[in-house]
Every structure is written in structure tokens, then in C-alpha cells.
Amino acid sequence: MTVRNLVKSIQDIMRQDTGVDGDAQRISQLCWMFFLKIIDD
Q1: What is the pLDDT of residue 39?
Q2: What is the pLDDT of residue 6?
Q3: Rounded to the nearest 10 degrees, what angle do helices 3-15 and 22-40 cross at?
Q4: For 21, which DSSP code?
Q5: Quick check: 20 and 26 in contact, CB under 8 A?
Q6: Which label site among 3, 8, 17, 27 has the fewest CB atoms less than 10 Å from its CB?
Q7: Are 30 and 7 in contact (CB under 8 A)?
Q8: Of all helices (H) and strands (E), which one includes residue 36?
Q9: How many other β-carbons are positioned within 10 Å of the β-carbon of residue 22?
Q10: Alpha-carbon gap, residue 40 to 13, rounded angstroms
Q11: For 1-41, what is each residue's pLDDT tens digit?
């Protein structure tokens, strides 16, 4: 799975979440998740 497909699938999941409002909030949360994943690895 490419990074592009991974990000798209994560965004699709986040769009279904009622607690996340707008693309700006999704982008900041996605960046934070990637940061934590990189630190964890």
C-alpha cells in the first residue's frame, strides 16, 4: 500500500467521524498521528 492510498483511506475513515469538523482539523490530526508513528518506530 502506497502512502497516498494509506492517507486516503485514513481520511475516508476520519470523514465518517462526527467529532472531526473540516479538512483543517483532519490534516492536523493526521500529521500528529504520523509524527507519533515515526517516533514509535
Answers
A1: 93
A2: 85
A3: 130
A4: -
A5: yes
A6: 3
A7: yes
A8: helix 22-40
A9: 7
A10: 22
A11: 788 898 888 888 888 877 777 777 888 888 888 899 899 98
The angle at the Cα of 8, spanning 12 to 22, to the nearest 5 degrees, equals 55
- Residue 36 has what pLDDT? 92
pLDDT at 18: 78
At which residue does the C-alpha cell 475516508 appear?
12
What was the pLDDT predicted at 16?
A: 85
Length of the chain: 41
Location of C-alpha cell 492510498: 5
* Alpha carbons 28 and 38: distance in angstroms, whole number: 15
